[in-house]
Amino acid sequence: MSSSTNLARQTIRKLIEFGVSDFVISPGSRNAPLSIALQEANSRGIIELHIKLDERGAAFYALGIAKATDRHVAVICTSGTAAANFHPALLEAWHATNKLIAITADRPERLRKTGANQTTDQVGMFPNIPAFDLVPGANFELGNGPTHLNIQFDEPLLPNDSNDSNDWLSGLHVNPPDKTQETAKSLTVSGNGLIVIGHDQGTLDASEISKFIEASGLPVISEDPLTFSNSISHASAFLSDETIRNYLKPDYAIVIGRTTLSRSINSFLTLAEKTYVIDPRISTIDTKRTASQIFFALPKLEVSTLNPTWISDWNEISKLATKVIDEDQSWSEQNALRTIAAGVPAGSALFVGSSRPIRDIEAFAKPRGGIDVFANRGLAGIDGNLSAIFGISNSFERTYAVIGDLTFLHDLTALLAPPTNNLTIFIIDNNGGGIFSTLPQSGVSGFEEIFATPQNQDLAKIISSFQIRVTKVKTASDLNFTFSQNNPGLNFVIVEVPDRKSMATNLAKTYSRISSAVRIGLNLA
Length: 525
Hints:
By secondary structure, the chain is of the alpha/beta class. Helices cover about 35% and strands about 15% of the residues.
């Protein structure tokens, strides 16, 4: 038996006993020992094996599975540039603490820096990610975030069939690594305060957060209003007005996770006299983050005073903003996102792309519950989103996603191996980077070329060329009809919206109407 075959089998067996059941591989030569071992395990129904041609997409696909299941998921590749393609997904996994295991096949250490083919120094090529350089007899462990296993395989890479033993998978004992549990501390607060929840919830369990906020009795702002149904509607929209922010100035704010979507929310948080932050990542990742007090787990909260007027002000302002938004029935990106957010059936999953879609849902969607919401908020990139969506869809009977047109084009190779799961992906098509039209650089010389970057592509033709079902919609009723059809398999829906300049103008007008209505309602005008 070759040492490479033994090393591959020992590694895979240990991963299976750690509870890893999903493995994603990209074809290659140096990773052949792993691919063969995984095929044997898959043929016996012990694992689920996924094959993806592109290493970057493969890593994001594995990341999607890890996000949906909160389990360790392995992605495997050959040596050289193939390994480097794992880095974007690993960065997302690091900052979001997703359990992605990157397994990179390597040549023996003696060949490094000798000019050997497809050989570079792969050990430590992913800064911050715990790494293990494996040879026969070496050990490794898995943590609560990503891990890099670099495995040195020497020739011969294939087993000697005449002496091969196929009992290496017998007697498995699955024993997943223990989760690190932080001890809950106590926090007592008084005065006018509120809870603010970042979109990724600080990697904490949503059901536990719901119990925490319900017991507090405090107003709640959530960057993800589709998970916390009792959150304040449209907070990021009405808090864009400085006068309203100052009127609602809090004595304290309890922040769960990172607030990364809206300048208005972060500007509001700077007004709080005290800020309490709850986020486990501060101990290892965001180590320079500051607050009045930091917690790595949900504390035992005691709210010594609740001001009914303070709570009623928040509810009244939310109602005033909701009235303005509901009155606007014009077709826009914002109303398209509102319609999608409301239309996703209970029990489904929804992936929300970065840039405008996630911000429009935060500002304009009505709070609700009953769905599992995902996003790549570790580093908020638009790369690999299709692959991540495909991975997430493995865990749900029906999955939906909404992304921008540039996000779609960024990951086209994912369509080479589309899923067979029930998945509907909405593409907001404004022919370019819509978010830049809402930012200060929108008026600079050369804006269209260097920021908006219109691609002028027929998205429907691109999708159809992969023999994938695609439709176009341009009204709210069309969107609702899409939900009622409930088509099986993979479906793309291109949402044709007004041009980016019109979107930015309409957005500014909507914010102005909300500000005016709230100011008048509170006698602040």
